[in-house]
Give the backbone structure.
Amino acid sequence: MSKIEDVKVNVETGKTKLIAGVVQEALDAGDSPQDILQAMIAAMGVVGDKFSAGTIFVPEMLIAAKAMSKGVDVLKPHMTGEGSSSLGTCVIGTVQGDLHDIGKNLVGMMVESAGFTIVDLGVDVPADKFINAIKENDNVTLVACSGLLSTTMPALKQTVVDIKASGLTGFKVIVGGAPVTQEMADEIGADGYAADAGGAAIKAKALVTAA
Ligand code: B1M
């Protein structure tokens, strides 16, 4: 089995104690951090499919997510740049009612490497917590809202609407997550949308430098 395949299997089967070593072995074998990350994302796709098919349940999803997070921790130093933080502060969180944080964490990691300072509000973040963080932190130039559940899309919309209605200025709002589309982002009044973490970093930089 190739090292990359090994990484995928260890995430899929939630090997939280082994995954860090397996990721390191893949790196040592010359696999790129990007390829290793893609393998882990693909593994989570398989986990989601198994959940949909009813062959695994929430605890298995959770343990796979923990394994992926531990794998990402090993990759992080290999994926982030200098992080000069010259583009201001990005307030990031997963919207209210939603506990999924792996995609949000990847977006935070890539946006940080594009030159932002990250203020991570975590998961299940109500709109007023985003608004307070914009008020309380210096030079907030970007607000990034993640949502993974169809059922939390109304919360995503409300978050963007409330942030825009707060009267606060000087920042752009970017949204994303599996059920989010460009069309939806336009509809709810977000300034930007990205399909993945790499795209979010590019879009974040473009939005803030064009402002
Ligand atoms: Co849940 N879950 N989950 N889950 N979970 C999904 C999302 C699901 C698709 C699984 C399935 O049914 N096939 C499904 C949602 C269906 C839907 O709404 N259409 C689902 C469900 C139903 C649920 C529960 C309701 C299950 C239940 O309790 N019955 C429950 C809800 C809990 C809640 O949030 N209130 C639940 C719970 C959980 C766990 C807690 C067990 C766990 C999350 C743990 C954690 O995050 N720490 C979990 C997991 C692991 C998943 C799957 C398997 C994997 C998610 C993941 O991390 N993917 C997922 C199935 C799947 O994704 N195929 C599933 C990897 C990650 C890198 O991808 O987060 O999509 P993703 O991020 C991507 C892009 O979306 C994008 O960039 C990333 C890639 O670079 N992106 C952004 C994300 N945020 C962005 C923000 C941006 C820009 C891009 O700008 C700001």
In short: DSSP finds nine helices and five strands in the chain.
